[in-house]
Amino acid sequence: MTAHRLQPATLSFIDGIPYAGSYGDVYHSDDGGLEQARHVFLGGNGLPERWRGRERFTIVETGFGLGLNFLATWQAWRNDPRRSNKLHYLAIEKHPFSAQDLAQLHAMWPELASLSSALRDAWPVLVAGFHRIELDAGSVVLTLAFGDIADSLPQVDAAADAFYLDGFAPSKNPEMWSPQVLARLNRIAAPDATVATYTVSSAVRQALAQGGFICEKRPGFGRKRDMLAAHYAPRWQPQVRPLPAVRDAIVIGAGIAGCAASERLAARGWQVTLVERHDRPAQEASGNLAGIAMPLLSRDDNISSRLLRTAFLYSVGRWEALGGIGRAFAGEACGVLHLANDAAHAQMQRDTVDALGLPPDFVRWLDGVAVDAMTGSAGTHGAWLFPRGGWVTPSSLCAAMLDACGDRLQRRFVSEAMSLERTAAGWLVRGGDGNAIAEAPVVILANGSSAMSFPQTQALPLCAIRGQVTHVPADVLPDVPVVLCGEGYVTRPANGICCVGASYDFDSDRQLRQASHDENLARLAQVLPLAKVDIPMAGRVGFRCASPDRLPLVGALPDMCLPISGSRLRDVPRLPGLYGLL
Ligand code: SAM
Question: 284 in ligand 1 pocket by Cβ < 6 Å?
Fold first, then answer.
């Protein structure tokens, strides 16, 4: 499978201009890249004027390249005292440059040095998928989709105010300008969207016109006589998705999911009421001493792997912004070893890294000798090393996320949400005594399998799976510098305790069981064969919330009372304002 293999760009120049040999084209006009960005892309979209006085402005670019258009835009936005509050910039790029190559390229524009160095500091690892970077303390949100436009564009959900079409000359790179791509830009266009590009190719104009854009030629940049500017004015009524008038949400459940949802909503200007039955956050499954942060790999790069890769990389970046793992909250970015069970598994691990072309700052395959040297074991078969992985104490991460909400958060703890009632204002959440806890237009269920306790959501396909973790004092285990995973796992010490886990039981027993400890010791023997543990057992029981395919349920929850009008996902009727993060 090579579908999600990312092929980074190869840096080369022709007459001092960055050049892509595989396309036979240059990255920008030889009359000046920055000036071209300003004339064609900013000017062609009526910027900076059009973002003035707006809450947010969204730009979608096809072909991020060296980021010159982005940097020119960011610079103009920063220098504009009447800029929008937020700038969203989403760019698709099939062949991203490495940060080192970008440094060499960006050195050509010293006036952009502070912005370009901030961009490179946040530059993602070169793996396929969506990467979100927040710059200027979150006012500039750069979303990079690393992949082919044909795969990436259909996944974009946006209301673009401006499009920058910059994908090499149409004659040299027709895929980037295909009628399918151009005509479908309308799917993500805001009602007054505009488009700018340097090409005036008639095929491009025709495809845009088919999508409802009215094109006009304008004076081009440098030696180019013309460029194209277009605005969205379809003969049909474009769909408008109104932004919520009241940014007020109730989040139910103060585990890692609920705290993360609260933090992100507060960062976007929402008022959040967090409802939790315990007196503190992270008292159930998120109360474990240590949680492991790692991605999942599969040879066919399946949907779980892609989702977890994106989520893992996003989390690691977000945690840095929160103040850093081991600083703002307990944990270590010590790396995680995912051990192979046997020689065949080791070979599969190695092939997966090669086949997907995964970079060493994301994952490295280590042979048995290297693993033995790192763990002090003998005779292991090999492992994936995730150098950015590690462990965190979820309760301290939850506390850091809630602190970051500031006064946008209201904590309603020792309050158990027992019913949800539709009201004119949205949803009313009541406790067991029938008293109102909170009311808001939006409710997000982040309370694990307890989400099924409401009549509206009792049919969600979720179940609770018991997991018992065994606590082993660190001094009875070999000191290993990384988290070890395989059939089971052992973390590095959190307050002198290593967590070994975890059982997987289909019952609801909250008591610790010796049988589960014994299973965990067998898991420990698999990942750390030389460990000898012969002490009375301690630990913790939690319940995982699981769906049948083990993917999370995220988004608007279905209305089970209404008939489904068709067989597509979008035909499922939803409960307005009721969401799950489960
Ligand atoms: N806008 C860039 C800048 O400001 O630096 C320059 C873009 S360069 C002219 C065109 C970019 O499109 C290249 O980086 C190239 O890798 C990318 N590209 C080409 N074909 C693509 C495709 N099918 N899907 C996504 N990106 C593609």
Answer: no
